[in-house]
C-alpha cells in the first residue's frame, strides 16, 4: 500500500512535469492547436467544395461514400484523432530530446521505477493532447451540425488509449535512437503513411485492396473509426471492436516501451 | 579506518573495440573527498557511470555503501546524489520546479520539501532566481542549481563529474567553497572527477591519477608529489644565450631537464637546497650566465608528466572547454 502511494506520487510528478513543460513551450501549444484547425479549414473547405454539387441526389450519393457524413464532418472527426496521434507519437519520440539535453539521466538515476516514470510521461502528454483535442472539437461543433455532444467523452477516451499506444511506440523507438537525425526520418516514413492509410481523409472501403490491408493493421484506423462513431454515430467498423483492438495494440506497445525503457542505459 | 563507502574491484568497461576502463580498483572512505584526475578520454566518466548504475561493467565489481551496483541498482540510486558532466536540467522549467520534481521522484514532499528547496537554493545563492526559467541561466548558475539538486534528498554520497568544467574562475571558487562546506557540515562522502590538477589538489583528500582507462597512481596530493621525490628548479638565462641542459647529472642529483618557454630550462632535482649551488657552479664552468633561478615543490602536472611522459594539458589557466558536449 505504502509503495503504491509512493508510485502514485512518482507518476503524478512526471505528469506535472510534462504538462508544465508543454505549457511553457508556447510555440508547441500554438502549433498543436493551430495545425489541426488549419487542416480542417484549408483542406476541409477546399475538398468540401469539390464534393458539393448543390444537387440533393448527387450530394446524398457522395455522403454515402463518407459514412453518410458531409465531407467537413468526416474530415473533422478524423483530424481530431490525427492530432492526438501525431502529438502522442512526437511526445514519445521526444525522449530523445531528453537524452540529448540530459534530463533523461536525471530520471534514470532516480530511485523511481522506470515503468512509472514512463507511464507518467505518457499520461501527462496525453492529458495535454486531449485538452487540445477538446478545443479543436469545440470549433468543430460550430461548423458542423452532425456532431453529437454526448459522444465527446467516449471519443476522448478512445483518444486517450490511442495516445498511450503511440507515445509508447515513440518511446520504444527513441530508446534505441541516439541522434536527432532519425527524428525527421521517422516523421516522414511513419507518421505520413499511417495518417493517410487510416480513414482520416478518405474512407477505407473505397481504398484499393492492398491499401485496405494496410489500413486494417494500422492501429490509428481503429481510433479514427471509433472516434468518428462516437462523435457522429457513423462508422465502418463496430466501435466495440475498435476499442478492443486499440487497447490490445496500446498495451502491446506499452509493454515493449517499458521493456526497452527499463533496459535503457546511456550506451546506445 | 571504517569500511569503504565506494569500492571498485578490477572494473573493466569496453565499448566495441575501445577499452574505456581497464581494471580500475579504488576505495573511497567515509567523509572523504576522493578525486579521479585524468586527461580527456581517461575513462573518468565511464567509471562514474558504472557507479551510478547508468552503465553495466564488462567485468569487475563495484559497490556503493556495500551494495553491488549491478545486482541492486535501485538501492544504490537511493544513496547517491549526482552532478553529471553534461547538463541535465530541464531548461523549460524554473529552478524551483527542477528542484521540486527531483524531490518528488526521490520520495520527498510537502512542507519539508519546500523548506529544503529554499534552504538549498539559498546555499548556492540562487534564491532570487527560484522562479526563473532555467533556459535563461548562465553556465555557472546551472551548475550551482545542479549541485543544489543533487543535495536535495540528503544523499550519503555525492558524485560530481567535472563540477567546474568550463566555468570562470570566480564561479569555480564558489563551487569549491560549496563542496568544502558540504563535506564539513553534512559529513558526506564525495567522489569527484576533474582534469584540473589545481582543483584536485585543492579539494581532494586522496586522488587517483587515471590515464587510458587505468589508475596509474594513487595517494594524497603530497604522496603523489613525493613519487617524484624532488623539487622543480627553473633557470632563466640571459637573452643572448641558448638555454641548455647539463650533460652531467651531478651524481644523480638531477633527475630530468627540459627547455621551456622564455629562454628557460626546468630541472627536476632531488633536493633543491643542496643542489642549487652545484648547478650554479656547473653552468659557470660551461660559461653560461644564469639570470634568474627559482625552485618550488612539483605540481601534480609534473607528477603526471613523470608518470606518462605526456603533459596533463589542461590547467585552470587554459581556455575553458564549452560545457555542452554532444554525444
Ligand atoms: N558510449 C560510448 N560509446 C563508445 N565509446 C565511448 C562511450 N563513452 C565513452 N567512450 C570512450 O571511452 C573512453 C573514455 O571516455 P570517458 O568519457 O570515460 O573519459 P573521461 O575521462 O570522462 O574524459 P573527459 O575528460 O573528456 O570527460 C573515450 O575513449 C571515449 O571515446
Ligand atoms: Mg568525463
Q: Could you please describe the fold and organization of this structure?
A:
- The complex is a heterodimer of chains A (268) and B (327).
- In chain A, α2 runs antiparallel to α4 and α4 crosses α11.
- Chain A has one domain.
- Chain A has 12 helices and no strands.
- Chain A is an all-alpha fold and 268 residues long.
- Chain B is of the alpha/beta class and 327 residues long.
- Chain B folds into 2 domains: 219 residues, P-loop containing nucleotide triphosphate hydrolases (Rossmann fold, 3-Layer(aba) Sandwich), CATH 3.40.50; 68 residues, Alpha-Beta Plaits (2-Layer Sandwich), CATH 3.30.70.
- Helices cover 34% and strands 28% of the residues of chain B.
- Chain B contains 10 helices and 14 strands.
- In chain B, the strands form 3 sheets. In chain B, strands 6-7-8-3-9-10 form a 6-stranded mixed beta sheet, with helices on both faces. Chain B has a 4-stranded antiparallel beta sheet with strand order 2-1-4-5, with helices on one face.
- In chain B, α3 crosses α4, α4 crosses α5 and α8 crosses α10.
- The radius of gyration of chain B is 23 Å and the shape is elongated.
- Bound molecules: adenosine-5'-triphosphate and magnesium ion (MG).
Structure in a nutshell:
The complex is a heterodimer of chains A (268) and B (327). Chain A has 268 residues and is an all-alpha fold. Helix content of chain A is 79%, strand content 0%.
- Mean pLDDT level of chain A: 88
Share of residues in strands of chain A: under 5%
Number of domains of chain A: 1
According to CATH, the homologous superfamily of the largest domain in chain B is P-loop containing nucleotide triphosphate hydrolases
Please, how many domains of chain B? 2
**How many helices of chain B in DSSP terms?**
10
Helix content of chain A: over 70%
Please tell me how large the radius of gyration of chain B is.
23 Å
Strand content of chain B: 25-35%
- Hetero compounds: adenosine-5'-triphosphate, magnesium ion
Q: What's the helix count of chain A?
A: 12
| CA-CA gap between termini of chain A | 36 Å
Query: What Rg of chain A is obtained from the alpha carbons, in whole angstroms?
Result: 19 Å
CATH topology of the largest domain in chain B: Rossmann fold
Instruction: Say how many strands of chain B there are.
Output: 14
Strand order of the largest sheet of chain B: 6-7-8-3-9-10
The greatest inter-chain interface is formed by: A-B, 30 and 32 residues
Biggest sheet character of chain B: 6 strands, mixed
Shape of chain A: elongated
- Coarse structural class of chain B: alpha/beta
The first-to-last residue Cα distance of chain B is 40 Å
